[in-house]
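Reviewers asked in the last cycle whether our approach scales beyond single polypeptides. To address this, we selected a multi-component target totalling 634 residues and predicted its structure end to end. The input consisted of the following lines:
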Amino acid sequence: MPDHPRRLKRSGLTMPVVTERFINNAWHRGCDFINMDLEDSVPPNLKDVARNLIKESIPVVNKGGADAVCRINHDLMEADLNAVVWPGLMMVNYPKAEHAHEIRRMDEIITRLEAERGIRPGTIEIGANIETEVGVTNAYDIVSASPRIREFGGASGYDMSRDLGVEMFVQFDQFVYGKGEVELTARALGVTPHATPFTPNLTGSVSDPDRAFAEADAARRCGFRIGGGLHPNVVEPQNRGFTPTDDEVADAHWVIQQYRQLSHTGDTWLQTQDASGQPRVVDRYEAARAEELLQWRAACEERDREKNEAIARVRAAEASA
Amino acid sequence: MPANDKIRRSWLLVPVSQPDRITAAPNSSADVVILDLVEFVAESDKPAAREMVADSLASVQAGGAEVFVQIEPDLMLADLRAAVWPGLNGIVVSRAETAQQIAEIDTVISSLESERGLLPGSVEIVASLETAPGNHAGFEIATASPRVWGLTLGRADLIMDLRPEPSGEIHLMQYLMQRLVTIAAAAGKTPLGAWWRHPDRGLLATPDNTRAAAQRGRAIGFKGSFCVLDNQVGPLNQGFTPSESEVAAARSIQQIYADATESGTLAAVTHEDRFLTADIVRQYTNVLDLADACATRDMFKAAAVEGRPVPVP
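The resulting structure, written as structure tokens, was:
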């Protein structure tokens, strides 16, 4: 198995690939990824036009350092894959995934296209989006169907609400079972769970930056890493919300230091107070969380540097042109 | 549902490597003492800790507790050889992940039982589903051996790295708890656990939070829970025992139903706008049976602690 380091996906914008001004302006928004949509935001009469725009749009959305993702159509999978698997694409999002055989078919086609088009084998990920009850029921077989699935989640959102015939924006979590099943599947098969804790949302706003930050912050505190949205307003709050704060970094160093005191004592945990006077338990689990937090923070900083440099390069080139 | 044949409300985890904890265990009033070789024993202390299990088995039972030993699949052979001696009630398999592991553990236990003069099949297993593969394979694990008596989530919150949500619930836990209770019932096993919330973590909580977690846990079907500290034992015993007001209400409903159906012409009645049938009343009878069994268990432990002759349970 080639090693595929996980790319960061704190923030992302999904946009119809046929709307030129969205595609042309997305690169400087600071997203970790840009999801070019062929599905619900593209009208049926433009599906052909849309899929043929992906190849030329990949370098456009890439130029600010964002990774390129494409959401294809469930019912047009083969034609869409032929048009979108090109160098520079990181992931194909497959909506309404329901059966393992769909994923196996995608894997075969992508494997052939990678070979034909000079893409290193296994580069292109499959995002299998669970948006129906059939998908929830077959989750384990779906994730088992291809090593290209490296993150997994779903069982909530617009399509799931419609599949169940329920209102999406309510005070309580209407998807406990499906989300739990999908997340347990991801964890059991060792792929990154793409999940988020429930926060009540009655407005359905797609552009509220405070709400975007609160959701990202809660998700990060729960150990999750993946964001994404529909409006440029949410990009910066998501990058910020998914990045550990300076206080958390200081706390992580403190935890690791406390944990070191346990070695050779024969004890496996200690109870103490942290800098803010809160009672805290320190053990190997807290130490592991702290180590992971420091690594994640470093990865966030590296990713931000990468994007900032890419954006600066483009601006400098434009200025001198 | 398995019968409430054994009252095992509080399961106190005691590191075998810590003599003061072993000495204190008989006075803890725990229904079950778990001699731990996994979570709370430093890696370098494990060989010495295994040597101490045989002697500790008898000493911790002085307070009338049953005794289990917690082992892990990776070190199964050494752990089981250290643990399976006369007096042992069962094994907790930490981080259980596959039915195959349980089958292998069953085989090793069987040969040790026969070598060391234990009644064949007497050593029970509680499978602790603390990883995602273990939870996913929960039903296969539960049915892998007739020795499996119970299932629990152990310290899944730490081992699976599940953290608090803004609501205070531990992420994914409500799903995992309901799943475990369902699997256990379907397999005829006993679900063990408590509904912990932030800031409780890794079975560790204040006495008050432990009592509340036990009451919530009992309300969704758990029969008892693991804990880490001596001062959590009382709250678990209390939380998993029907309260006095529950007992009084159950007695009264039983009587009301008996009186109302005495004539033999009615099977369903309403009382204070509540609907009662024989099956509904049976639930209250179960509560009274549980309360009686808990009282008997507590009497037995009290007698053991005081060194009095104990009533045969």
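DSSP finds twelve helices and ten strands in chain B. We regard this as preliminary and will revisit it once experimental data from Aim 1 are available.
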